[in-house]
Structures are given as structure tokens and as C-alpha cells.
Design a protein that fits this description.
The complex is a heterodimer of chains A (about 325) and B (about 350). Chain A is an alpha/beta fold. Chain A has ten helices and eight strands. Chain A has two domains: about 130 residues, no CATH class; about 140 residues, no CATH class. In chain A, a hairpin with a 3-residue loop joins strand 5 and strand 6. Chain A is globular, with a radius of gyration of 20 Å. Chain B folds into two domains: about 180 residues, no CATH class; about 120 residues, no CATH class. Chain B has twelve helices and eleven strands. The model of chain B has no long low-confidence stretch (mean pLDDT about 95). The chains are: A alpha/beta (about 325), B alpha/beta (about 350). Chains A and B meet through strand 2, helix 3, helix 7 and helix 9 of A and helix 9, strand 10 and helix 11 of B. Bound molecules: iron/sulfur cluster (5 copies). The site of one iron/sulfur cluster has 14 residues of chain A, from helix 9 and helix 10.
């Protein structure tokens, strides 16, 4: 994946030089190990700051919402599916963007890696299949595939589903993954056990809304959590309010979420709120044979009615 | 300045005694990280932690705090009257607070304890609190406290500073509260001051030498507010920000709150909750107009407040103690050190800045 950068720069510069786009959205190197920052270039020179490695887990589609310029955008598999969803939902026009597809081998989980070491990590060096983690008094080389974000380890759409340019040949998709072991475990719990599970999961939440704001789907001008007339959700730390926020947000993502993992990645206290969206993803797959963001010309299931839609839940 | 020696063998015993006098708060490991929590008898502060994920500000200034209760039942005589709720302002001590986080309370105090206005909740809680700091021997690479008005051994904002000295802690007494804390724990063996102070000075320098991140703030005061406000760099700085508010919630010096009434049936309470300048709702007017309507406005506000308005208003340095939390926890890696560099080196006419 490291080798992509030359091609990324070449394409971005060309698009800017030829005036095909006003800006290209990519990443620049972060100031901490395992962090990159979403960044834009408006000139070929500015493209020099771009980087690409396994720390590009933020979903760049989030930066397209309602923009009016002509934009070139780097897109991993998941980003491209959110772009498709954006196009379907009229948050960006297809002819306004040039999608620079990046076949993705997965992003590393910086929390998981940090938790493996007692001391502070000073530097992380990456090559094709491994990362080497260095700190005061320790150095260790780890297989990248052992420290991927969970959503990336389970990803079955690593290649962009829609693109105008590609920075490399498509890579082989994973086929032997079971995406829903965790969801099934929760489904098997009794209602009381589920309640306890969710309570424990959400107990550390500080309601910063990083999960919501990192998500390309959460573009409502006023989120229901912020509505004051009527006020749907209390603003304190009451667990009912915290859970209401999470449950409702997840429902708003039903049939739209691509499991890009940006929400979980952004949470300052390490909550895996993806269990909610994954459950809905699984339901959409089982009930409607639906996976989000694969085709800009197909309306999503929660947006359409078909006579054959499952109705077993109506008793 | 008195220095007391605490043998680590006596630590557990002393803590046990402290429970009789104080509610104790200390770093506790939860999942993958530490946070300040109230500890119960039998529990010990986990002083191995570099620093806690969230700042300890919530001990004095809870994220969500009920101030009043009321009844809406018109059959009751005192309906629709706000009544103060009972609060526990019995002595509490924060053990293992880092010098930067303690210094943050001094900065926050400027807001909650001003000549015009005294915030009773914050002040009562602050008065009830003894801050027992732990000097940092191995600061993180993202700590920049020495150029943000404090440092790994900064003692002034504390009541007591603990210094790890192998088999023992040295406790440097800063205030009467600190003295009382030691007495309650039964730690009373004073060491020869001059020798200890000299050694502490050496350790202090060694810790300060380990700080590897710095900010320059010398020009912030003299640069024109409007020049900074209209600087070109804000687009670049703010581009990646998702306005999540994480930076402000984890920051020990951020103090903004919102007031809410919550009713259930015909009873209710008035509470205040942390709020953040990163949220559009923070400044939304009743008319629907929002003077800080874009992400750029909000990002600029956060940095202008911390690094310019605060500097100008209080003449007490920047509204940041260099703990580095916002850098480590920002999901998109917006780095206050970088932004401070842009601001401090801003030249209005050329609209260029040092990167
Ligand atoms: S979810 Fe798939 S496409 Fe997205 S970052 Fe992970 S591996 Fe790449
Ligand atoms: S809910 Fe989370 S995983 Fe799903 S699209 Fe949004 S950020 Fe990505
Ligand atoms: S990012 Fe984490 S802490 Fe913030 S609102 Fe979401 S779950 Fe809660
Ligand atoms: S934590 Fe980062 S992304 Fe979130 S509001 Fe602060 S600067 Fe913006
Ligand atoms: S602004 Fe950032 S570095 Fe400064 S005190 Fe707040 S969280 Fe710490």
C-alpha cells in the first residue's frame, strides 16, 4: 500500500493541473505515530504533503458533504461505498467528483497496538505486511493482519466499487470471513443480558459525538440529539439518554452504514458502537439481500417498498 | 518548605487512614486506559499511569451537575420554586493528579471566581479538595507543559507534591491542606530539607529535559486580534475538524457549560452540562441565526479563545497547560502545537507563517 503514494501524487497533480478539479482530498502525515490527518490540496505543489499508509482510516467521504467545488477524492473500498450513498442521497453530484480509487489492504488499529505495550510508542514503521513498533526500551515487529481494525479484518469490499482513476490494480477480495460472529453472540443473549451488555458498553461514553461526526451518514443539519423543539433526548449523563442517542443514531444508519469503522476509530474512550450498526447491517442483508453503497442506481431498501418485502414482524 | 518522607511500605496503611477523613479520587485502570475515579476502601491509587485519558476536571466540575430541583404540582405550596439540592462538600482528595492538571484548576478559577461572579458549585468543590500531585518522571512525547506555564515538577497549583524516590515518596508540602493530608495519613517523618531540595532540583531538571515538545507563545499578546482572526491559515487548520468536541471535553482547562431543565412527571431539576464551542448549537440564536455558523468559525474560536482572547483578558499565559490530551485524542489529529506555531508567527501583511 505504501507504493501507492507516487501514483496518488501523479494523479492528483494531473487533475489539478488540467483543471479537472479545484481540490483533491487526501491525507497528510500526522504529528503522532499511527495518525494521519485528512488534508486538501488546491495546487500541484500542495500535493507533495500527501501520504498513504495503514493510518488512513478516517472516512474521507465525510469531507464531501454539500461541498460545491469540483473535487478529486481518494477512496478506499468503504469510502467509495459512502460516496455512492452520498450520490444516492444527493449530498454530492457524481459529475462534481473525480474518484481516485485506492485498493485497500486494511487499516491498523492504533488502540489495539498501543495496548500491547506498557510504555509510550515513539515510532511505528510500516512495510508491506508488517509494522515495527518502537518505544523506550522496546521494539517489536508485528504482522499487520494481526492488528487490523476489526471492521477491516472483516471487510469484503476493499476495492473501490466506483472510481474514475485507480492508483493500483484491484486486489483480491476476502471471501472466507464471517462478518457477524460478534452480532450473533449478542443476539443470543436474553433481553436482560442484552440490557446489561449495552449498559456496560456505553457507560464510559462522554457524549462528545465524535462517532456521529466522523460518520459520512450523519450529515443532518440538526441532529435529533441537538433538537430543542421538541427535545427528544436529555443532555446529561443519564444512561437512558446516552443509550437513546446511540440506538437512534444506529437506526438512522440502517441500510446505509458501510462498516468503515470511522466511528469506532474516533471514539476517545474506545467504545465499539459498531455492534449496533452491524446488527442492522446484518438484518438488511438477511431481510433484503442488501449491502449498502454498491450501486448508485439502486434505491436502498428503507427507501422503497416491494410487495415481496418480509413482513413476518407484523403479528 | 517542609518535605516528608513516605516509605512505600507505609503507603497502603496511610491510604487506609485517609479514607476516614476524605473521599479519595485516584487514577484507576479501566479497560485499556486510566481515569480518575473515586476509590473505595481496599483500593489503591494506580500511580503507574502516565496520565489519565480524561482530565480530572470532572471531580470539581462534573460533566452533568444538578443545581436545583422543583415541583410543577400546583397543589404543592412551593411549586415552581427552584430549590437548591443537597451537595456533598465534605473533604475530598485527588491523589496522583499531574502538575499540569492541577495548574488547569488555577486557570479555570479565573473564570469561576472573578470579581464580578463567583460560581458556588465550582468554588465549594474546589475548597473541599486537596490536590496531591505526582511529579512526572517520564512525560509523554506530546506533553508540552514546560512552555505552557507549568512543568513535570510544577508544584504551585498543588497542596502536596509527591516525588517518587525509589523505595519512598518525598512529599513536598505546599499548603496547609497538604499538611493536614499528611497528618491524616500518619506520614510525619520530615527529611532534611536542604539536601532533599537539592536532589529534587536535580530530578526536576532531568524530568524537564525529557520534555520534547514545545510551543512559542511570546508574540500572541502583541499580534492584532483582527489580523489573527482573518489569517489565511484557518482554512487549512480547520479543514479536517469534524467538530466533535472531544478536544474540549478531555481538556482540563475548558470550562463552558449549558443549562437544561429536565422534567419527569411534575417534578424536575435544573442541571448544567459541559458544552463545547465546537458544536453549532453552542452559539445558535433563537432567531435561527448562528454567528459561528461554519466549522472554520468554531475551530478558530477554540484556538483564539485559548491562545489569544484568554491571553489578552487575564494576562496569565495561555488557556492551556500542555497536557497533550487534545492532540492524542483528536480523531483527525489537529494539533494545538502546530496551530499555536501558526498564530505566534503570524505576520499580517504577508499573510504567511512559519510551518
Ligand atoms: S473497511 Fe475495508 S475498505 Fe475500509 S479501510 Fe477497512 S479494509 Fe479498507
Ligand atoms: S456508522 Fe460508523 S461504520 Fe457505519 S458508515 Fe458511519 S462511521 Fe462508518
Ligand atoms: S465517540 Fe465515544 S464517547 Fe463520544 S459520543 Fe461516541 S461513543 Fe460516546
Ligand atoms: S477533537 Fe479534533 S476533530 Fe474533534 S472538534 Fe476537536 S479539533 Fe475538531
Ligand atoms: S488545549 Fe489540549 S494540551 Fe492544552 S490543556 Fe487542553 S487538552 Fe491539554
Amino acid at each position: 500500500m505504501l507504493s501507492y503514494i507516487d501514483k496518488i501524487k501523479e494523479i492528483s497533480k494531473r487533475l489539478l493541473k488540467e483543471g479537472q478539479v479545484d481540490m483533491v482530498i487526501g491525507f497528510r502525515k500526522g504529528t503522532l505515530p499511527m495518525m494521519n490527518e485528512p488534508h486538501f490540496a488546491r495546487s500541484p505543489e500542495a500535493v507533495e504533503h500527501f501520504v498513504w499508509d495503514s493510518n488512513c482510516g478516517i472516512n474521507l467521504c465525510n469531507y464531501l458533504t454539500s461541498r460545491t467545488e469540483k473535487i478529486g477524492i481518494l477512496a478506499k473500498g468503504c469510502d467509495s461505498r459512502n460516496i455512492v450513498t452520498h450520490i444516492i442521497e444527493n449530498k454530492i453530484k457524481r459529475d462534481q467528483i473525480v474518484i481516485i480509487g485506492v485498493p485497500c489492504k486494511g487499516m491498523i488499529d492504533r488502540r489495539k497496538i498501543s495496548a500491547m505495550f506498557a510504555g509510550e510508542i515513539g515510532e511505528v514503521i510500516e512495510d508491506d505486511n508488517t509494522i515495527t513498533v518502537k518505544g523506550k526500551g522496546f521494539e517489536k515487529t508485528i504482522d499487520k493482519k494481526d492488528v487490523l481494525q476489526q471492521n477491516c479484518a472483516l471487510c469484503i469490499h476493499r476495492n473501490p466499487v466506483i472510481h474514475d482513476e485507480m492508483v493500483a490494480d484491484a486486489i483480491e477480495e476476502q471471501t472466507d470471513v464471517d462478518r457477524y460472529t460478534d452480532v450473533r453472540e449478542i443476539e443470543a443473549l436474553s433481553p436482560q443480558e442484552k440490557a446489561t451488555y449495552f449498559e456496560k458498553l456505553l457507560e464510559p461514553c462522554i457524549r462528545c459525538y465524535a462517532c456521529r461526526n466522523a460518520c459520512p451518514l450523519c450529515y443532518c443539519p440538526t441532529c435529533f440529539t441537538d433538537e430543542s423543539r421538541p427535545q427528544w433526548v436529555g443532555k446529561g449523563q443519564d444512561l437512558t439518554d446516552v443509550s437513546t442517542f446511540h440506538f437512534l443514531r444506529a437506526y438512522h444508519c440502517a441500510g446505509r452504514c458501510t462498516d468503515c469503522g470511522a466511528c469506532e476509530r474516533s471514539c476517545p474512550v474506545g467504545i465499539n458502537m459498531r455492534v449496533f450498526t452491524k446488527k442492522l447491517e446484518k438484518d438488511c442483508l438477511e431481510l433484503f439481500g442488501w449491502e449498502a453503497g454498491l450501486d448508485p442506481d439502486v434505491r436502498p431498501p428503507l427507501d422503497t417498498y416491494k410487495p415481496g418485502d418480509p413482513d413476518d414482524f407484523i403479528k | 518548605m517542609k518535605i516528608v518522607q513516605i516509605d512505600k511500605e507505609d503507603w497502603e496503611n496511610g491510604i487506609k487512614k485517609l479514607f476516614e477523613v476524605y473521599r479519595l479520587f485516584a487514577p484507576v485502570k479501566e479497560a485499556d486506559f486510566h481515569n480518575f475515579k473515586q476509590i473505595e476502601a481496599g483500593q489503591l491509587p494506580d500511580l503507574s499511569c502516565l496520565n489519565t485519558r480524561l482530565s480530572p476536571k470532572s471531580i470539581i466540575y462534573p460533566q452533568s451537575e444538578v443545581m436545583f430541583k422543583y415541583s410543577l404540582d400546583e397543589n404543592e405550596e412551593d411549586h415552581h420554586i427552584l430549590k437548591e439540592v443537597d451537595k456533598d462538600y465534605s473533604p475530598q482528595a485527588v491523589i496522583g493528579i499531574r502538575p499540569c492538571d492541577a495548574k488547569a484548576f488555577e486557570l479555570v478559577r479565573l473564570n469561576f471566581d472573578s470579581p464580578d461572579y463567583k460560581d458556588p458549585y465550582w468554588l465549594n468543590a474546589y475548597e473541599a479538595t486537596t490536590l496531591v500531585g505526582l511529579a512526572c518522571e517520564s512525560p509523554c512525547s506530546s506533553c508540552f507543559c514546560t512552555t505552557a506555564g507549568c512543568g513535570p515538577y510544577h508544584a504551585e497549583a498543588l497542596d502536596l507534591l509527591l516525588i517518587d524516590n525509589g523505595d519512598q515518596y518525598w512529599a513536598k508540602v505546599i499548603s496547609a491542606k497538604g499538611e493536614a493530608f499528611l497528618a491524616a495519613a500518619g506520614w510525619t517523618v520530615a527529611v532534611e530539607e536542604q539536601t532533599a531540595l537539592k536532589e529534587i532540583e536535580v530530578k526536576k531538571r532531568a524530568a524537564e529535559d525529557k520534555i520534547s515538545a514545545f510551543v512559542k507563545t511570546d508574540k500572541l499578546r502583541e499580534i492584532e486580534t483582527n489580523d489573527l482572526y482573518t489569517a489565511a491559515f484557518w482554512e487549512e487548520v480547520s479543514f479536517s475538524c469534524i467538530n466533535c468536541g472531544t478536544c474540549t471535553y478531555v481538556c482540563p482547562t475548558c470550562w463552558c457549560f449549558d443549562i437544561q431543565d429536565e422534567n419527569r412527571g411534575n417534578r424536575g431539576c435544573r442541571m448544567r452540562n459541559w458544552d463545547s464551542c465546537m458544536y453549532p448549537l453552542f452559539t445558535l440564536h433563537g432567531s435561527g441565526h448562528n454567528p459561528r455558523g461554519t466549522q472554520l468559525h468554531r475551530v478558530r474560536q477554540r484556538f483564539m479563545h485559548k491562545l489569544k482572547y484568554f491571553v489578552d483578558k487575564y494576562d496569565a499565559g495561555i488557556q492551556c497547560v500542555g497536557c497533550g490530551r487534545c492532540i492524542r485524542l483528536c480523531p483527525v489529529n489537529i494539533d494545538i502545537r502546530r496551530v499555536c506555531g501558526y498564530m505566534n508567527s503570524h505576520v499580517a501583511s504577508a499573510d504567511t507563517c512559519e510551518v
